[in-house]
Amino acid sequence: MSNTSENPNPSSSSAKITLKTSDNELFEVEEAVAMKFCTVKQYFEDEKDNDVAARGSSTVIPLPNVHSAVLARLISYCKKLPQSNAVADNHEEEETKKKERKQYGTPGDLVDLISAANYLDFKEGLEFFNQALADHIQNKSVEYVRKFFGIKGDFEPHEEEKYREEYAWAFEGVDED
Amino acid sequence: MEGSAEEELERRSKFLSSLIQKKKAIEQEDQHDYLNVRVRASDMPLALQNRAFRCARDHLDSMPSKLDSKRLALALKKAMEFVHVKKATRERGCAAIDGKREVIKVLSFYKAYVTPLSHSYFEFLLPILKPTDMEISHVVEDNRNEDMQDSQTLLSSKSCVSSQNEYTQEVEPGPPHESLFLVLAYLPLFELLAMSEVCMSLRDAVHNDVLLWLNIIVERPLSSRLSDGILMKITSKASGRLKTLVLINCEKITDDGLQLVIRKNPHINKLFLPECTGLTPEGVIRAVKTLSENHHGLESLRIHGIYNIKKDHFDTIRSYFQMKLPQHQRQQPILFHHRNSPKFRNEESNPMIDIDVDICPKCNNVSMVYDCPRETCKKKSCKACNLCIPRCEECGECIIESEELEATACGDNLCSNCWLQLPKCNFCNQPYCKLHINHQHRLSGSTGFVCDACHVKFVATLGACYC
């Protein structure tokens, strides 16, 4: 089963690179996009060094840590990157960026996107997704974070109390949602 | 009688099996001692684990002084593939070798790939397992007195385990997802404190990472609760390497508290203390003096909203800066309507603005002096403080005397152009400026809004009548 990602100009001369995800789907992406992922880039260059002309661009690069759904989103983010890359100069642009981040996805998605972006060493994406997730965590209580991200509080009760006390000054009037 | 005999039998068999398990564990321990390996977390069968460790150890010993992580990973992969090549699934097992503190990361099933996590240790993920012989064993050794590196190793190995079941994680509480460690660097102070109370591994990550504490920004609502003692505690986490200290409206901070922090952290290059009303001009001068004597590192200072800053205070502060920058020039204009934007308030702002306040050319007092964005004003100077020349809250342009100040619901100034464009209260036809836009009351069933005053006057009393 193969799923080739849609391509605006199929006859373009730019080389294609095929990526294979953890669930065995194949993605054909333009070289320019794939080179944003430093891990892929590294692999690609290594491959080139190893056997120069034998296989060329037809090699399939396996990405066993990335699920196809996540990779699809990363690629689409990568494609629209140049437009949103302009340096935000003033307040208004910062606001629109924030809105964009908010609409990008649920924290559940973002967590996967971040680990994939980290694995792929995709700097711009990592920054964007991390910031988006940080926006989600803003002004949330400890219990909220635990519940939301499925984390087990593994403190001893007396320890927990101690830390609570240490930071009690900070936790007044938190969103309890 | 029969029942008790059965019970006795069961008890004995339990005892026996526990004995066997203990023996196994001890053997395992010996094995680890022999290989000089410590297991942090593993879900591989023991036999497989031992094979991996032995293989890794042999290679490590045979390697010349410098660790070639890639070679090691390749060798490991070869050895493991040999065992399980036929039925190996693409599931990843995870084990950590802590012999020479290397933890090696094999990222791909097809081609071993090693990433050093830092210069001294690596992480490895091994492809393994027929599902049938997979008895999941969790050997997590928790050593309380571990140094920072140890805890990081623990973190990294824990996070590998968690990444394995990332899709089931939403249901059952478990260790945190690895992404949450990455996001820490992007969190402001309050969220950082909250995260540190979520679980042990996150707490260790927050407390041990100096990088998270180099830029400390205290904003509302934390700022009003921040006392000298708490500030000292927070800044001590940076272990003297604090670079940015932003305290916005922290009214409880005193001169002495500030001075203590400054003395402990001589590398501060951004010191923002706007509206910290507990400070005095003398305290600020002392802080700036200490910093300039030590390293001359201070690049920008924000002190507007501190009371009683006189002209000679300002000159003293300026003189400390001038030692560093001989030609004083303010290239970036300060615009009135940008003064509350996060960029100006926080660390992002332009380094060209070294001190935010200046001496107003009109009234000669020390305060924020704004430039005018209006084209025609650029030639003739209308640089002045807000009291001398009123400015529009929306566009920052000066409001010329001939022009009438428009009435707003919040009492701030607006120029005629901006006034016309803004949405207005349904009752009194007055707009809110952007600072007070959240004071609008939306009524169901009608577009637009009602301002605070009209809401109290009309809507609330009307509501009371209906009740």
From TrEMBL, chain A:
<dbReference type="Pfam" id="PF01466">
    <property type="entry name" value="Skp1"/>
</dbReference>
<feature type="domain" description="SKP1 component POZ">
    <location>
        <begin position="16"/>
        <end position="80"/>
    </location>
</feature>
<dbReference type="InterPro" id="IPR001232">
    <property type="entry name" value="SKP1-like"/>
</dbReference>
<dbReference type="InterPro" id="IPR011333">
    <property type="entry name" value="SKP1/BTB/POZ_sf"/>
</dbReference>
<dbReference type="InterPro" id="IPR036296">
    <property type="entry name" value="SKP1-like_dim_sf"/>
</dbReference>
<dbReference type="InterPro" id="IPR016072">
    <property type="entry name" value="Skp1_comp_dimer"/>
</dbReference>
<feature type="domain" description="SKP1 component dimerisation">
    <location>
        <begin position="130"/>
        <end position="170"/>
    </location>
</feature>
<comment type="similarity">
    <text>Belongs to the SKP1 family.</text>
</comment>
<comment type="function">
    <text>Involved in ubiquitination and subsequent proteasomal degradation of target proteins. Together with CUL1, RBX1 and a F-box protein, it forms a SCF E3 ubiquitin ligase complex. The functional specificity of this complex depends on the type of F-box protein. In the SCF complex, it serves as an adapter that links the F-box protein to CUL1.</text>
</comment>
<comment type="pathway">
    <text>Protein modification; protein ubiquitination.</text>
</comment>
<keyword id="KW-0833">Ubl conjugation pathway</keyword>
<dbReference type="GO" id="GO:0009867">
    <property type="term" value="P:jasmonic acid mediated signaling pathway"/>
</dbReference>
<dbReference type="GO" id="GO:0016567">
    <property type="term" value="P:protein ubiquitination"/>
</dbReference>
<dbReference type="GO" id="GO:0006511">
    <property type="term" value="P:ubiquitin-dependent protein catabolic process"/>
</dbReference>
<comment type="subunit">
    <text>Part of a SCF (SKP1-cullin-F-box) protein ligase complex.</text>
</comment>
<dbReference type="Pfam" id="PF03931">
    <property type="entry name" value="Skp1_POZ"/>
</dbReference>
<dbReference type="InterPro" id="IPR016897">
    <property type="entry name" value="SKP1"/>
</dbReference>
<protein>
    <recommendedName>
        <fullName>SKP1-like protein</fullName>
    </recommendedName>
</protein>
<dbReference type="InterPro" id="IPR016073">
    <property type="entry name" value="Skp1_comp_POZ"/>
</dbReference>
UniProtKB/TrEMBL annotation, chain B:
<dbReference type="InterPro" id="IPR017900">
    <property type="entry name" value="4Fe4S_Fe_S_CS"/>
</dbReference>
<dbReference type="InterPro" id="IPR037177">
    <property type="entry name" value="DLC_sf"/>
</dbReference>
<dbReference type="InterPro" id="IPR032675">
    <property type="entry name" value="LRR_dom_sf"/>
</dbReference>
<dbReference type="GO" id="GO:0005737">
    <property type="term" value="C:cytoplasm"/>
</dbReference>
<dbReference type="InterPro" id="IPR001810">
    <property type="entry name" value="F-box_dom"/>
</dbReference>
<dbReference type="InterPro" id="IPR050648">
    <property type="entry name" value="F-box_LRR-repeat"/>
</dbReference>
<protein>
    <submittedName>
        <fullName>F-box protein skip28</fullName>
    </submittedName>
</protein>
<dbReference type="GO" id="GO:0007017">
    <property type="term" value="P:microtubule-based process"/>
</dbReference>
<dbReference type="GO" id="GO:0030286">
    <property type="term" value="C:dynein complex"/>
</dbReference>
<feature type="domain" description="F-box">
    <location>
        <begin position="176"/>
        <end position="216"/>
    </location>
</feature>
<dbReference type="InterPro" id="IPR036047">
    <property type="entry name" value="F-box-like_dom_sf"/>
</dbReference>
<dbReference type="Pfam" id="PF00646">
    <property type="entry name" value="F-box"/>
</dbReference>
<dbReference type="InterPro" id="IPR006553">
    <property type="entry name" value="Leu-rich_rpt_Cys-con_subtyp"/>
</dbReference>
